[in-house]
Design goal:
The complex is a heterodimer of chains A (758) and B (418). Chain A is an alpha/beta fold and 758 residues long. Chain A is 35% helix and 26% strand. Chain A is globular. Chain B is of the alpha+beta class. In chain B, the strands form 2 sheets. Chain B has a 7-stranded mixed β-sheet with strand order 2-3-8-7-6-9-10, with helices on both faces. Chain B has a two-stranded antiparallel sheet with strand order 4-5. The radius of gyration of chain B is 29 Å and the shape is elongated. Classes of the chains: A alpha/beta (758), B alpha+beta (418).
Chain lengths: 758, 418
């Protein structure tokens, strides 16, 4: 490989004649760029803001920015759909600054999904304010804000930039300290609207209902300004999130650069088992080519483990260069200081290749990257476009390589490029009706302000629920009102981010006397990633978990140097608690309702890097984790003459295949739902497939599946039948241990399920 | 049934408004809430019910004659303390004027922080010249609906008084402000008052001497008062909730007593602290008096600081007086009394912690080098300092390296001078 700098088009020209690549790249697709659409500055735009824009070389606005300004000035809440690099921040900065210049008492809250994003926007905003010469105070307010300036932020900040978590536990429960903010709140900006989906979005929907309740108490009625990446239902999501009607700005006036998409499938290395070469290795090879060509690249991988594996491979490129930091990992578990260093390195170019989990999907400004590699399908179209948008900001030519893993959906996408390039992105759904989430926030709301006997909470009638809270002894009813009456601080018991409310802290004790916290992880992931003897990778360094103190939620790790990683199994048991709905389906019965499940990490395997051989295993001793959630299940009669073992294997394979296809229909992340087969379900003794929401109380996903079984089964069957392998592989029914009739049996089960009852 | 299951059972109870039209009735002006059903019962327990324009509250008043003894002190010693401040030749943040109106203040609340924490008891203790007594007045929240009545009754929107509390600066007063803000539409503004927080002074006085700075520990160790049959403060929230739920005030009365003791102890703590600041008691440890000397030093009251510290060096042995010598030396150096400074630094050298010891060696080296110009001695202390850094195992590596570099610089410079 030549080690010389090349442009993307030069590189692509070479690749066209590369025999090896030609075979593996199934599709080339080039999307041409688009010209910008402009609008003039609004007539009333304050001269100081005109000056600030001109200082940045801006003489006119994109059409969507102008529309945003006009709506905001009219007091209309709106949502703007803005692709990456379309100057979305002007959609809110301009009206907000205009309002504050006109009225120095006016206040605004900017809500970003993470601290890092708020930090990033603060610098940009402060620069803009400086260029305008106006005296406008903007501050970030989060866990990192120094106690010394908090008072000042509360009293004098015109613009407070924060995140939902801080709003939830640091601002709303102390609203009396923020009187000047809440009395004068004109705008609430919600950036990255599309990230508020699922559990997190459902929580945030309640945080916003609480916020609106407090605004009403202080007599303000703020206008909402939301910006979103491309999703199918931005207006609907914004309205569900804010409980307010929104206007929609769907047309971006920003120009778009030329993008080349490559759909890359790793070669099959084992025909019988249909095993392809590991996508991680393929991605690493492609990344090396881009690295040598001097192309700044971002690589996305779905799991933390994969990120760390790719970093490990790529670091070999720089092994002989001391202090070379040009290859870095970036993911959720890193400490803020570490992340800032990486963000800076990307901007100034000292980092050439960054490997990231979805943490970087968000609009953190990392400057210009030329290429993007996706390790596998990120689970939904919207995410894929977000990742692709990382390459080619500022109208440059960009290269996007999609590398399929062996998972079913991955293979589907690599063979159907139009699915990715041609279909509408998914809906982002929230489910604020989840009773557990709702009750949690009802408590917080009662803590923040008493409810009267006629009050509703958002759109909900809650008098009966308050009755329950009174029985629980946390609220007290006087003749008129429900008052919080408990020494608890409810916001502290509620995390907006994770299903399990407690995180496990990871403690490095490699150097005696200098133990330090290097990260944290949610409880559910910790069961399979931080069990004792697990290999935990952090910034490419391997650590072994020596002790997991489950009671105290602490994992003690020590640095090691081994040539394997670990992978753990999770066993799940289901119990039907309540059947809300059911109907006959062909030979069986489909139901929807509440289930109780018990998950337990059972054993782990040690898997060698590169070859992916299983080189050992061990048991995991952790208590089972219980969950109450919603589920849709399909029961059928056991086929005659099948042994229980045969049926188990067949159902396991079928469940594997179904699980992979659910995101095609209900448009969620494949990790939000799970499919579990039970050969003899406890409630009816029949073979049953359960599809459940992986969050206590459910988030409305399996409820949709209840309507979709027919399509799901036929699509699954079609995919399994057309898979190239002989008897089952990771792309269809999962890897099989031995050469049996697995695939045939799975297809038989799928056929039985769809056979009309005679 | 688990909590989770219970909540999920309630799914059917959740109503949802189908229309988005918000019924917007005009908010009525303040409506006086109804008196709770247990009003009579609480009156029988010794509380007085009082009504104002915002509702009702309960009140309890106790008169304490000036001669009343609480622990080591009679309450009237408070006036001796005031006289001391009158005669003092230095400034001090805890000084009170002869005619300053004083309000000893303590609250009981339903929690520790946030808007959901209610104040259910406002305890006041004030001087009444006419009645020659201290008057305790407790205002008790009738139920949460009557909060405005309670706050209004406190008159804190009208009167001027110096508030004296224990941890009131970070707890009681901000809580009061929070409650007041919630009623800002109805109530006149809460006045800002001068505020003396005796927790802060106690920390200054008894740092390194007392492990826990709870008022109860201070009472037992310093004020000669121990409580019998006291309700622990953390039970107060649940007791109040129970009282308004059941209407039975018995346990609540015990909380009132707890609050009463807190207030009485505030007076004697103020008396005791004042005596200490004027060195009128000798029962305290060298540590306490050293703390006092240091406090004066921080207040830039050097003569007072020197006076207190010198007394420590005379009354206690070399070991106990180590820190006093150290702070004394710093004062001497500030006052350019270099030979006294050297003596005091040397006297402290073997009786202070390593971090201070290093500072002492540095100071000695500096004085010998720059003031006395005795490079031999300066060199000696510099070498001692370097030894100390090298031998110490507690300090972090980077810190040690940084120090060593600067000390080596000094060594090098002295070598040239010699």
């Amino acid at each position: 490989m030549l080690s010389k700098k090349r442009t993307i088009s030069e590189l692509l020209n070479e690749w066209r004649y590369d025999e090896e690549l030609k075979e593996r790249i199934l599709h080339w697709q080039t999307l041409e760029g688009r010209e910008a659409k402009y609008a003039s500055f609004p007539e009333n735009l304050h001269p100081s803001l005109v000056k600030a824009l001109q200082a940045r070389g801006i003489e006119q606005l994109y059409t969507h920015q102008r529309q945003a300004f006009d709506y905001a000035m009219e007091g209309v809440s709106f949502t703007a759909v803005t692709p990456t690099a379309s100057g979305k921040s002007y959609c809110y900065h301009l009206p907000v600054l205009q309002k504050i210049v006109e009225d120095k008492n006016a206040r605004a809250i900017y809500l970003f999904p993470t601290k890092a994003l708020a930090q990033d926007q603060k610098n940009d905003l402060n620069e803009l304010i400086e260029q305008s010469g106006e005296e406008i105070l903007s501050y970030t307010y989060d866990g990192d804000t120094a106690p010394g300036i908090r008072q000042k932020v509360r009293k004098a900040g015109h613009i407070v930039m924060t995140n939902p978590d801080m709003l939830h536990s640091g601002i709303l429960p102390h609203h009396t300290k923020w009187v000047s903010l809440f009395e004068n709140l004109q705008y609430i900006v919600i950036d990255e609207l599309h990230t508020y989906k699922g559990v997190f979005g459902s929580h945030v929907a309640h945080v916003i209902r609480r916020l609106k309740r407090i605004c009403e108490f202080y007599g303000s009625k703020p206008v909402f300004i939301c910006t979103s990446a491309t999703i199918k239902n931005p207006k609907e999501l914004a309205e569900a999130l804010t409980n307010e009607s929104h206007a929609l700005i769907a047309d971006s006036g920003a120009p778009v650069g030329k993008k080349t998409f490559l759909f890359y499938n790793p070669p099959i290395v084992h025909k019988t088992f249909g095993v392809r070469r590991s996508a991680v290795l393929e991605v690493s090879d492609l990344a090396k080519r881009l690295y040598t060509a001097g192309i700044q690249t971002i690589i996305f991988a779905k799991s933390r483990v994969r990120v760390e594996m790719i970093v490990t491979y790529l670091k070999e490129l720089t092994r002989n260069k001391l202090l070379d930091e040009s290859v870095r990992g970036y993911r959720g578990g890193y400490l803020p200081s570490e992340r800032r260093v990486i963000e800076r390195g990307l901007r100034d170019g000292t980092i050439q290749t960054v490997v990231s989990t979805n943490a970087l999907e968000l609009g953190v400004d990392i400057g210009q990257l030329q290429a993007c590699i996706m390790t596998g399908y990120p689970g939904n179209i919207a995410s894929a476009w977000q990742q692709a948008g990382r390459a080619g900001r500022r109208q440059d030519e960009a290269l996007i390589i999609y590398v399929a893993q062996s998972a079913a959906l991955d293979q589907y996408v690599v063979n159907h490029p139009l699915f990715l390039l041609g279909s509408a992105p998914e809906e982002a759904r929230i489910y604020p009706e989840n009773m557990l989430i709702l009750m949690d926030h009802l408590k917080c709301a009662a803590f923040e302000l008493p409810f009267s006997a006629h009050d509703t909470y958002g759109e909900y009638e809650i008098q009966e629920l308050l009755e329950y809270l009174a029985e629980e002894g946390v609220v007290f009813k006087t003749s008129e009102k429900w008052h919080w009456m408990s020494d608890r601080f409810p916001a502290h018991d509620i995390s907006l981010r994770s299903a399990s409310q407690e995180n496990v802290v990871i403690i490095d004790m490699t150097v005696p006397g200098q133990t330090k916290v290097i990260g944290e992880m949610d409880r559910h992931s910790a069961m399979t990633l931080l069990h004792e003897e697990a290999i935990y990778l952090h910034q490419g360094t391997q650590f072994q978990v020596e002790k997991l103190d489950w009671e105290e939620k602490k994992a003690y790790v020590r640095e090691v140097d081994v040539d394997y990683y670990t992978d753990a199994n999770l066993a799940v048991e289901m119990k039907v608690l309540e059947e809300d709905r059911s109907r006959d389906y062909k030979g069986g019965m489909i139901s929807f309702g509440d289930v109780g499940l018990v998950a337990q990490a059972t054993l782990f395997k040690k898997i060698r890097f590169g070859t992916h051989d299983n080189i050992g295993s061990g048991p995991i001793y952790l208590p089972p984790d219980e969950m109450h959630t919603s589920s849709s299940w399909l029961s059928f009669s056991a086929p005659e003459k099948w042994s229980e073992a045969e049926l188990t294997d067949a159902m396991t394979g079928a469940a594997y295949a179904m699980n992979a296809f659910i995101p095609l229909f209900i448009q969620c992340d494949s990790s939000d739902v799970a499919v579990v087969p039970q050969v003899k379900a406890t409630h009816n003794e029949q073979p049953t497939f359960f599809v459940y929401d992986k969050y206590p109380g459910g988030i409305g996903l399996s409820e949709k599946v209840y309507e979709l079984w027919d399509e799901l089964l036929s699509r699954t069957q079609h995919h399994v039948a057309s898979c190239a392998c002989e008897s089952g592989c990771p792309s269809c029914i999962g890897a099989q241990d031995s050469l049996q009739q697995a695939k045939k049996k799975v297809l038989q089960v799928l056929a039985i399920l769809q056979a009309e009852n005679e | 049934m688990s909590y989770e299951n219970k909540i999920l059972q309630m799914k059917k109870m959740l109503g949802k408004k189908t229309t988005t039209t918000i019924k917007k009735e005009d908010k009525p002006a303040y409506q006086k809430p109804a008196a709770p059903s247990y009003t009579e019962r609480w009156e029988k327990a010794g509380l007085t019910v009082v009504e104002n324009e915002f509702g009702i509250f309960f009140k309890r008043q106790v008169h304490y004659p000036f001669s009343y003894q609480h622990g080591h002190y009679k309450l009237q010693s408070f006036f001796d303390a005031l006289e001391k401040w009158q005669e003092a030749k230095f400034e001090h943040p805890y000084a009170l004027g002869m005619n300053e109106k004083v309000l000893f203040f303590d609250t009981e609340t339903t929690g520790l922080k946030g808007v959901g924490t209610q104040i259910f008891l406002l305890g006041f203790l004030e001087v009444s010249e006419e009645e020659e007594s201290f008057i305790l007045t407790q205002y008790i929240l009738a139920d949460p609906a009557h909060e405005a009545a309670l706050l209004f009754a406190s008159m804190l929107w009208q009167k001027t008084a110096t508030i004296i509390t224990y941890n009131g600066k970070s707890f009681d007063w901000p809580q009061l402000e929070t409650r007041w803000t919630l009623h800002q539409k109805e109530l006149p503004k809460l006045r800002t008052q001068r505020h003396i927080d005796l927790l802060h002074s106690s920390k200054r006085l008894w740092k390194n001497d007392m492990e826990r700075m709870k008022l109860k520990s201070v009472e037992e160790e310093k004020l000669g008062f121990s409580r019998i049959g006291d309700i622990p403060g953390y039970l107060a929230p649940i007791i109040y909730l129970d009282a308004i739920k059941s209407g039975v005030p018995d346990a609540l009365i015990k909380v009132l007593l707890h609050n009463e003791w807190d207030l009485l102890s505030l007076i004697t703590l103020y008396i005791h602290s004042t005596k200490l600041l004027f060195e009128e008691t000798s029962e305290e440890s060298a540590k306490t008096f050293t703390n006092i000397g240091k406090w004066y030093a921080d207040l830039k009251e050097s003569p007072q600081s020197v006076k207190v510290l010198e007394k420590v060096t005379k009354q206690f042995d070399a070991l106990e007086a180590g820190n006093a010598q150290y702070y004394l030396a710093i004062q001497h150096k500030k006052n350019k009394k270099f030979s006294e400074a050297i003596d005091a630094f040397v006297a402290s050298l073997h009786f202070v912690d390593p971090r201070k010891k290093l500072h002492v060696l540095e100071q000695l080296a500096m004085i010998y080098e720059h003031q006395i110009k005795d490079y031999e001695q300066a060199l000696y202390y510099t070498q001692e300092g370097i030894q100390l850094i090298k031998k110490n195992e507690q300090w972090r590596m980077e810190q040690k390296q940084k120090w060593e570099i600067s000390w080596e610089k000094r060594l090098h410079r002295l070598g040239n001078k010699k």
